[in-house]
Amino acid sequence: MKSSSSWVIAAGLAIAAGLYFVLGSDLSLDWVDEGQVLYFSWRVSEGALPYRDFQNIYGPSVFLVNGGLLASFGADVAVIRALLVVLKSALSVFVYLCAVRMGSRPLAITAWLAAVVILGLPWPYFTTPYANFYGLTMSMAALVLFVSLDSSLARRCLLAGLCFGIAATFKQTNGLFGFLALLLYLTSLRQLEVVEKSSSVESRALPWIRVTRWVGMVSCLAVFGAYLSLDSTLANSLVLVCPIAALIGWMMLREARDPPDAAVAIGVFRAQLWLALGAVLPLAGLVTAYACFGLANELVFNVLLGLPQMLDWFVPLPTPNLLTLLFAVALGAALVAIHLAMAPGAAAGRRGLAPALAVVVAAGATVALLLRITQGASHWVFSAADLFVLIPFALVCSAIMLVFRSHGTANLEPTRTTHRDMLLLFTLHGSVSVLYYHPASDFAHVMMSAPAILPLIVPCLGALTRGRSPWPAVLVVGVLAMPFVFALAAARHIDRIERIPIERASGIRVAGELYRDGALLVKYLSAPANAARPVFVVSGQPLIYFLADREAPVDAYEFAFYLTGLGVLEDADARELVNEREALRTVRRTRPLIVGEGFDTAVTHFAQAYPILWSGIRDATRVTKRIGRFQVRDWGSPDPTTGDRHVESRQ
After folding, report:
1. What does the DSSP 8-state code read for residue 569?
2. In 3D, which of 403, 432, 346, 348 has the Cα closest to residue 164?
C-alpha cells in the first residue's frame, strides 16, 4: 500500500460507503439494547463514571466516547448514528486494505462490497452502537497499520498493540483475540526483512526464548478453550475452536520440524515484546485511572471476573436440519474438488472444473436461501441463520486449506511469498474471529463479526480465478449484492415507516405499534403535569429514560434491571446485584411513575427476580394510564381490576 493511488481508492471507497450508510442511519430504534448504551452514555455526559455510578459488562470507552459526543453535540440519537456511519465506513475500508494485501484490487473491492452490504442491513443490530463496532474497528485498524506501514517491525508491532489495547477498552474480546492472532502470526515467521544483531543477554536466553514460543502457542489455545468453556456445550465449543486449533496444531508441527534460526527467533521475540507493550499501555492507563478513584475492584468485577460470569446467555450454533446438512455436504464437496482442481500440476480439464463447481455451489446456496425464505415468512433472516453461519466457516476453512497448500510450496517469487504470509495472518485473525459467535451464535452476532472474516474472500476467489480475469467473480458478487443495496434505499419509502415525533430521536424513522406507542409515552412523560416526576422503567427498556430526559431513581442497579428484563440473569444472581430493600426505600422516597408493558415478559422477570421490590411497588401503586402496550402506574391505592393479575399468576 505504498502507492498514493491505493490510498486514493481507499478514500473513495470510504466516501461511497459513508454515503450508503447514511441511507439507513435514521432507520429503526431499539428500546432495549440501544437504550442501555445510549442511556449510560448520556449519564456519562452528565458526569457519571462507569462502574462507580452504574454497572456494565462493556469496557468503559464506549460510554466515555459516546458520552463525550452527547455532551458536545447534544443528547440526540442522531449524534451517535452519525458516529456509527463513520465507524462502519472505516471498518469497510479496513476490510479492503486487509484484503488487497492478499490479491488483486478487484477482488479486494468485492470484499469491501460484502462488508458494506452487511454493515448496511436495515435492522436494529446495525444501527445500535454496540461496543463490537468500536472494538472491531480498532482491531482491524491494528492489522492495517501492521501490514501497511513502511517502518520497522518493532514500530509496527507497537502501534498494532496500542490499537488492540484500545479495542479491549471497548470490548474485551475484540482486543484480546486480535492481539493473540498477531502474536501467533509472529511466531510463524521464519525470516525477517531486517535481522538486528543479538545482544549477549539475548543469545544466552535463546533456549528460554524457544520455550516461550511453545508456551505461547499452548497458552493461546488454552485461552480460547477457557473462553468457550463458559456456558457452552462440548459440541458447540469444539466446532468453534476447530479452525484456530487446526492452525495452532499445524504451527506446532512446523515448529518441531523446522524451527527458526537463532537470529529470527530473537527478532520475533523482540517484536512480540513490543506488541505486548503496546497492548498493555492503554489497559495499564485504564487500571491506573480506576485505581486512583478507588474503583479497581469494581473495574475487575464488571468487565473481567464477576458480572460477565453471571450472564446465563448461551445461543449455540443452529441445529442443522436436512436442508442445512445437504448444503454443508455440497459445500464441503465443492471445496475439496476445487482444492484438487487448483493443486499444482493439475490438468487443464481439472482446472476448468473449479469455476463450474463454484457456479453450482452459488446456485445451490441461492435455492436453499429461497426455500428458507418461504418457510420463514417475514422473519426469514432468522430462520435462515443456520445457512448464514456456514458462510464464514466456509471462508475460514477454505483459507486454512490454502495456507496448508501454500506453505508446502517452496521457491515462490517474492510477491507470492508476501501474499502467502498475509494469507496466514488474516486466516489466523479470521479463525479467532469465529470465537465471537460465543456465547451467541445467532444471526446478529454472525453478521456483526463478519468484517473480520471478509478479507478471506480474496484468496478464496483468487484460487478460483487464478490465471483468469477476476472481474467475472466481482460481477457475480456485485449482482448478488444489488438486491440488498436497493432494499436499504427502498426501506426509506415504505408507507408504514414514519418519523417518530420525539425530540431526542430527531429524524428517526420506524415502523410498528411499539414505536408509535413509545412516542406517545414519551410525550405523556414530558407533559407539564409529569415533567418534574421521576420515572422508573420496570420493563427493561432503558431507552425510555434517555428519550424522556430522566435519570433512573436507582441508577446503580439499572443494568441489572436491563439484564433481568432480557432473562439472562438467574434470580439469585439478580438479587445479589440489587439490594431490594435499599432500592424499595429509594423508590418509596422518590415516588416515580412506574412504566412497563402490560403483558410483557420483562415485567414478569422483574417480578420474579425482585419479589420484595415488586410487591412493595405493586401494593402501593395502581395503573393510571395505558398507552397502547405501555402502562403507567402511580402511587395511591392499588386497583385489583387494573391488570396486575397476569404478573401475580406467573410468580
Report:
1. B
2. 432
Instruction: Bin 559: left if φ > 0, else alpha if -120 < ψ < 50, else beta.
Output: alpha
State the Cα–Cα distance between residues 437 and 58, nearest whole angstrom.
Answer: 17
Burial (CB count within 10 angstroms: exposed 0-12, middle 13-18, buried 19+), residue 1 = middle
Residues 265 and 209: beta-carbon distance below 8 Å: yes
* Residue 292 parent element (H or E): helix 262-292
The residue assigned the cell 427493561 is 540
Residue 591, helix vs strand vs coil: coil
Q: Is 171 helix (H, G, I), strand (E, B) or coil?
A: coil
Pairwise CA distance, residues 443 & 465, whole Å: 30
Rg over alpha carbons for the chain, rounded to the nearest Å, is 27
* 233-281 per-position pLDDT tens digit: 888 888 889 899 999 999 999 989 888 888 888 888 999 999 999 999 9
Closest CA to 255 of 316, 191, 190, 310: 190
Q: Give the distance from CA 420 to its chain's centroid.
A: 27
The string of pLDDT tens digits covering residues 314-368 is 777 776 666 666 666 666 666 555 555 555 555 555 555 555 665 566 566 556 5
379: number of CA atoms within 13 Å, CB side? 3
Which 3 state secondary structure label does DSSP give 153? helix
Assigned C-alpha cell, 284:
495499564
Give the span between the Cα atoms of 506 and 515, in whole angstroms. Answer: 14
Antiparallel, parallel or unpaired: β 593-597 and 535-537: parallel
